[in-house]
Design a protein that fits this description.
Strand 1, helix 7 and strand 2 form a beta-alpha-beta unit. The chain has 2 domains: 98 residues, Orthogonal Bundle (Peroxidase, domain 1), CATH 1.10.520.20; 71 residues. Helices cover 60% and strands 16% of the residues. It contains 8 helices and 4 strands.
């Protein structure tokens, strides 16, 4: 999802303040909380966009959802409310997350499998990726029954396809 320019500006400002006060990790955790909440709770996103609910109620609701919200994150929420920009809260969180991960040399790898991966497989994939990259990698597992077996690894703009469906396609092309 493409964040608005306003969301990026808010994120840069809060990121700068968080770095100055050595709270960037704490604010990052707050941002992850609100990103996760918006993706798992449709009612949260609806509440942010609802113009019928008054801003004081929205402020209280948002802060009651996470008792450990940092002071900077509380100030950000207050600023978004006072500027009538609360609807872009999740975009600001996503932009902040991107800034933080880039600054801390973090990236994601996606492993697509037919079944959930085990901890052993997750660790083996991390070891392999860490041998070719100095970035801190987080592995996301996507379940796709259509690959039948094996896995597809997507990392740093590259894809390694070791799925059974891919192998069957190659055999099919050779036979035809």
């Amino acid at each position: 999802m493409k964040e608005s320019r306003a969301a990026i500006r808010y994120a840069k400002a809060i990121f700068s303040l968080a770095n100055e006060s050595d709270m960037s990790l704490r604010v990052y955790e707050d941002m992850l909380f609100y990103i996760d909440l918006s993706s798992n709770e449709k009612s949260f996103s609806e509440m942010l966009a609802n113009s019928v609910i008054n801003t004081k109620s929205k402020h209280d609701i948002i802060l009651s959802l996470n008792n450990n919200t940092s002071a900077l994150s509380k100030n950000l929420i207050g600023l978004l409310i006072s500027n009538k920009r609360l609807s872009i809260l999740v975009d600001v969180c996503n932009a902040y997350k991107s800034l933080y991960e880039k600054a801390n040399n973090m990236t994601k790898a996606i492993v697509v499998t037919a079944l959930p991966i085990t901890d052993n497989i997750r660790e083996a994939a991390l070891l392999k990726i860490n041998s070719i990259s100095s970035k801190k990698v987080e592995i996301n597992n996507i379940i796709d029954k259509n690959i039948l077996g094996g896995f597809i690894l997507r990392y740093d703009g590259k894809e390694y396809n070791a799925s059974l469906s891919n192998k069957l396609q190659k055999i099919k092309k050779e036979l035809i």
